[in-house]
TrEMBL record:
It comes from the Eukaryota. The keyword Repeat applies. The lineage of its organism: Eukaryota, Viridiplantae, Streptophyta, Embryophyta, Tracheophyta. Residues 1-31 are annotated as: Disordered. Keywords: DNA-binding, Nucleus, Repeat, Transcription, Transcription regulation. It comes from Acacia crassicarpa (northern wattle). One of its GO terms (cellular component) is nucleus. GO terms for molecular function: DNA-binding transcription factor activity; sequence-specific DNA binding. Residues 28-80 form the Myb-like domain. It is found in: Nucleus. Transmembrane segments: none annotated. Residues 28-84 form the HTH myb-type domain. This is Uncharacterized protein.
């Protein structure tokens, strides 16, 4: 019998030792952390080009990636998606931000609601 199980208010509570002493829950599930490889990037991009974006948790599993859905979504949106522009903003974009900030103060970014960002 496992002595590490406690009952509180009719619910069972387990201690960490119930799950073994080796690593975190992600490690136990085989979830990979750390930098993405080129192979993983290619798998993700190919899967999205064929099946489309969305349902990130099931996408990660069906693509065969050992990553979380959140990790796949962030990798796609911030690095792999076509049209993602990284680097410095243009002078025109900087002037637009200054103009909006002078009109709206710190609420200037509300004019870009709906997931739209400056590109």
């Amino acid at each position: 019998m496992n002595n590490n199980i406690k009952y509180r208010g009719g619910e069972m509570e387990r201690s960490v030792s119930d799950f073994g002493s080796s690593g975190s829950e992600e490690e136990m599930m085989g979830i990979r952390k750390g930098p993405w490889t080129e192979e993983e990037d290619a798998i993700l991009a190919n899967h999205i080009s064929f099946h489309g974006e969305g349902h990130w948790n099931s996408l990660a599993r069906s693509a065969g990636l050992k990553r979380t859905g959140k990790s796949c979504r962030l990798r796609w949106l911030n690095y792999l998606r076509p049209g993602v522009r990284r680097g410095n903003i243009t002078l025109q974009e900087q002037l637009l931000i200054l103009n909006l900030h002078s009109r709206w103060g710190n609420r200037w970014s509300k004019s870009f609601q709906g997931g739209q960002t400056m590109r």
